[in-house]
Amino acid sequence: MIESIRIAAILLFIVVGLFFTLVSAAGVIRLPDVFSRAHTASQADTLGAGFALAAVALTIGWDSTAAKTVLLLFFIFVTNPTAAHAIARAAYEEGVEPWTKGEERR
């Protein structure tokens, strides 16, 4: 009983992680400017990687490797949004204009 719940949770985490990763990839391709792309890459990709790493940690079980996976998960949650912020700030400081409604997409 517990094993089937664990397997169902692992599959759910994998599917949700895959969904967020695909949404992030589509957003990076489809969105019009660097600010929107940085936002979708940091938010959706962080969630996708987070759910995938949670599935890995559940698959491994109570082991030192699972603890390392959780530390990696924490590292991704901290660094991914920070990197997206740095990219957006650099674009802003270089004078990149944000896309606004009514403008042509480039």
From TrEMBL:
GO molecular function: sodium:proton antiporter activity
Keyword Membrane in record: yes
Top-level taxon of the source organism: Archaea
Pfam families according to UniProt: PhaG_MnhG_YufB
InterPro entries registered for this protein in UniProt: PhaG_MnhG_YufB
Keywords: Membrane, Transmembrane, Transmembrane helix
Transmembrane domains' residue ranges: 41-62, 69-92
Keyword Membrane: yes
Protein name: Monovalent cation/H(+) antiporter subunit G
Organism: Natronocalculus amylovorans
